[in-house]
Amino acid sequence: MKQKVLVTGGVGYIGSHTVVELQNEGYDVVIVDNLSNSVISVLDGITKITGIRPEFEQFDLCDSVKTTNFFQKHKEIAVVIHFAAFKAVGESVQKPLMYYQNNLISLMNILENMKRQQIQNLVFSSSCTVYGQPDELPVTEKAPIKKANSPYGNTKQISEEIIYDLICSDDNLKAIALRYFNPIGAHESALIGELPIGTPNNLVPYITQTAIGKRKELSVFGNDYHTPDGSCIRDYINVVDLAKAHVVALKRLLAKKTKQNFETFNLGTGIGVSVLEIVNTFEKSTGQKVNYKIVGRRDGDVEKVWSDSKYANDELGWKTERSLEETLLSAWNWEKQYNSKKNE
Ligand code: UFG
């Protein structure tokens, strides 16, 4: 019998790419998403790629009654992959309560119901923002968790603590927190990709929308950081590579191969790239010009962070496979495809 996986936020960016990989591996998927930062047509893209339309329920996981009703109806769920959350660093500085309420209440509702229904396996969507500005780079999972630079980062720190505390109280529950660095790019089919609603918060969708003429120019947030070209450095990871790591983590949980009941893994490429290098590489890979101007720093940004993902490479047998060039090209192909479809 096929095993059933609940993917919260499965219509969103990383969620949708993960649903594709799960369905390709033969898992039954049910998605819960409130469509607060995603559009329902993403399900058509998933269906075209995999030949299977995932089950979908639209509601807000902060609604405890709806969440409980959902879990009572879907008793056969074997694993929960929890993506649904707000994710913009800068916005979280402006609207901290919105971030704490949304990201923490939904998590607690899910955990309460997992416990009630004896669902034992959780893959949690965490982030390198849990490290704050690390003292040593590349950052490993053993690095001390310093004060987060943003309320968003703090919600990820607190979420990991909540999960850890629950696991300590219940031997049956196991979780893997995947600490992503910066996911970018799109599925190679260009049928799904990053689809921000309104003005993009993240760098690459802002670049692709500028290149296609939807935005006048990219604002580069700061060129006075202590980095070679003065702009911030991140570790940009291909979203399909990232999605595949979720399937590996899920299999590890189902095979009961975890070494501790709560495990954390960094998922990155190990390579730090600056904002200006991303702009240049995008221009080279796609042949498209990106207009940009330098503006002031954005609140909440750390200066530089990149991963040591050796533990994930060794322990999960997972590694990134797609280059930065092909990843940026995939983001561009997705932008073009999405706009041509809209203009039909
Ligand atoms: N940036 C710009 N201009 C923009 C947007 C971003 O210069 O219009 C810069 C930012 O200042 C930062 C870099 O590009 O230096 C990357 O910014 P993103 O907003 O794309 O990504 P963040 O690093 O802020 O955050 C992202 C995700 C988080 C995740 C984090 C992990 O949004 O959910 O990566 O590093 F936790």
Structure description:
Helix content is 41%, strand content 17%. The protein is built from 11 helices and 13 strands. It has helices at 13-24, 42-50, 64-73, 89-94, 96-116, 151-169, 203-211, 239-254, 275-286, 310-316, 324-342; strands spanning 4-8, 28-32, 55-57, 77-82, 121-127, 174-180, 182-184, 218-221, 233-234, 236-238, 262-267, 273-274, 292-295. Uridine-5'-diphosphate-4-deoxy-4-fluoro-alpha-D-galactose binds next to helix 7 and strand 8.
Q: Which tags fit this structure?
A:
41% helix, seven-stranded parallel sheet, binds uridine-5'-diphosphate-4-deoxy-4-fluoro-alpha-D-galactose, 344 residues, single chain, two-stranded parallel ribbon, alpha/beta, 17% strand, 13 strands
Helix content, binned percent: 40-55%
Indicate the radius of gyration in whole angstroms.
Answer: 19 Å
Instruction: Report the total helices.
Output: 11
Averaged pLDDT, please?
Answer: 97
Taking the sheet with the most strands, its summary is: 7 strands, parallel
Low-confidence stretches: none
Number of strands: 13
**Spatial shape:** globular
What structural class should be given to the helix and strand makeup? alpha/beta
Secondary-structure element pattern, one letter each: EHEHEHEHHEHEEHEEEHEEHEHH
Beta-strand proportion: 15-25%
Bound molecules: uridine-5'-diphosphate-4-deoxy-4-fluoro-alpha-D-galactose
Strand order across the largest sheet:
3-2-1-4-5-6-11
Distance between the termini: 42 Å
